[in-house]
Design brief:
This protein has helices at 12-19, 25-34, 39-46, 51-63, 85-88, 91-110, and strands spanning 37-38, 67-72, 78-83. The protein has 112 residues and is an alpha+beta fold. It has a single domain (5-110), classed as Arc Repressor Mutant, subunit A (Orthogonal Bundle). It has a 3-stranded antiparallel sheet with strand order 1-3-2. β2 (67-72) and β3 (78-83) form a beta hairpin. It starts with 11 loop residues before the first helix and ends with a helix. It comes from Inconstantimicrobium mannanitabidum.
Length: 112
């Protein structure tokens, strides 16, 4: 089976690639694996992300039900983001990304 956008929801590789294709999606998932964040907290934690890009990435992850957006009825408005149950299913994969990333960083440092 070839990897193609038409295989979303059919092929596990195409499906995963689509959900985590955004530049910031994996890092956002990592941050939310630690705790719930408000928008501004996420933006500060991510450093170089614009408000527009963060909004787009959060909406994307929310659309795919990886994260939950909770709006509190107060003034000023308060919104928190957290992982959904299916988003938490990604945590073992996230851990493997960390393990591989650490190994690759080590590889790069020995390659100098």
């Amino acid at each position: 089976m070839g990897v193609d956008k038409d295989f979303f929801g059919i092929c596990p590789y195409s499906t995963s690639q689509k959900i985590f294709s955004g530049k910031w999606n994996i890092v956002i998932m990592h941050l939310l694996s630690e705790k719930s964040y408000r928008f501004g907290e996420l933006q500060r934690a991510l450093g170089g992300i614009t408000q527009t890009t963060l909004t787009k990435q959060l909406r994307f992850l929310e659309e795919y039900k990886m994260i939950h957006r909770k709006v509190y009825q107060e003034i000023p408005p308060k919104v928190e983001y957290s992982l959904t149950d299916i988003g938490k299913e990604f945590l073992p994969v996230l851990k493997e990304f960390q393990i591989f990333g650490d190994k690759y960083i080590d590889f790069l440092s020995k390659d100098k």
